[in-house]
Amino acid sequence: MKQILKRLAVLAFPLVLMLSACATPPPAAAPQATSPTTAATESTAAPATTGKLKVIATFSFLGDFVKNIAGDNVELTTLVGPEGDTHAYEPVPSDSKALAEAGAIFEGGLEFESWLNNLYTASGSKAVRVVVSEGVTPRVVEENGQKETDPHIWHNVDNAILMVKNIEAGLIKADAANAATYTANAEAYVKKLEALDTEVETEIAKLPKEKRKLVTSHDALGYYADRYGFEIIGSVIASVSTEAGEPSAADFAKIVDAIKSTGTKAIFLESMANPALVERVAKEAGVEVGPELFTDALGKPGSEGATYIDAVRYNTKALVSALSA
Ligand code: ZN
User: How far is the CA of 86 from the centre of ligand 1 (A)?
Assistant: First the structure.
């Protein structure tokens, strides 16, 4: 039936809409495509169900940004949800379908989504790809003699503002009819982010400079450290990716020594990473395990890290509280 419909589509588009309506069981209260203009620009293989622009955000922080700027004007799919590990993500068939139907994809870039190029190609997607890290000065770190780019740019709120502006531009490009809304929403959200930036600075000012020392599960808070005056002592997995695997015995000893010799008071778990390694290092170094931080993903809805603003606020309070001891 689908094949026949596809062939018919070329000849008689309006007829297809009628046939589709008859052939598919009506989903509960889901509005059908109402605007012929929108429907005509969609691929015939993927008829619109709401008439709205379909967009993808690759991970949860990005999804929150897109939601704040696009509001209800788009149908948003976030691939790696709350507490998900984007580095090690394995796409599922529904991701491919979502990509094929999308008009725009918002991605972090800087090799955060190492699986995205293959997924994009395999899905046959024609979506515009918007790399939201464009214009950010990347942090480059050396890992095992190799230079690696750190993708976790959103922990510097200035970078988040830049990401929001890239998202605004991407949305306007894909959906010019709603440009005024996207601009207004972006401006309002940027104001909130500016207030957040000031709030973080004020909170961190409570922590004496010599106590601003960071150890996390993987190297995820470098941009945060650079922006707000922390020193990165190291990370348990000495890598900007969670895919680096467990540290060698030598690396394990090195991070324990670094924690002891710098007088670091606490080391931190990350909500999306395995806690066991961090707990072992903390025990060996004789320091506290601080609370879980939201580094690569939002927390679940209703949690203290359910939105980007909540997550940054929570992380900051948790750091200041645990390191003040
Ligand atoms: Zn990460």
Answer: 7
Q: Calculate mean pLDDT across residues 91-95.
A: 97
What are the Cα distances from residue 11, in Å, to 5, 17, 40, 48, 212? Answer: 10, 12, 13, 19, 67
**Centre of ligand 1 from the C-alpha of residue 136, in Å:** 17
d(C-alpha 192, C-alpha 313), whole Å: 12
Interval between CA 241 and ligand 1 midpoint (Å): 5
Q: Is the CATH number 3.40.50.150 carried by domain 206-324?
A: no
In the chain, ranges of CATH 3.40.50.1980 domains = 2-20+35-134+142-197, 206-324
What are 151-191's pLDDT values in tens digits? 999 999 999 999 999 999 999 999 999 999 999 999 999 99
CA of 299 to the centre of ligand 1 (A): 15
CATH architecture of 2-20+35-134+142-197: 3-Layer(aba) Sandwich (3.40)
Q: Which residues surround ligand 1, an ion (CB under 5 A)?
A: 220, 296
CA of 3 relative to ligand 1 center, distance in Å: 43
Cα 215 to ligand 1 centroid, rounded to whole Å: 14
- In the block, which residue shows the tokens 């790399």? 131
| pLDDT tens string 264-305 | 999 999 987 888 999 999 999 999 999 999 999 999 999 999
308 CA to centre of ligand 1 in angstroms:
15
Which own/partner pairs from 43-51 qualify as long-range (CB within 8 Å, at least 24 positions apart)? 43/100, 43/101, 43/126, 44/6, 44/9, 44/10, 44/13, 44/16, 45/6, 45/100, 46/100, 46/101, 47/17, 47/20, 49/75, 50/75
pLDDT of 107: 98
> How many angstroms does the Cα of residue 33 sit away from the middle of ligand 1?
39
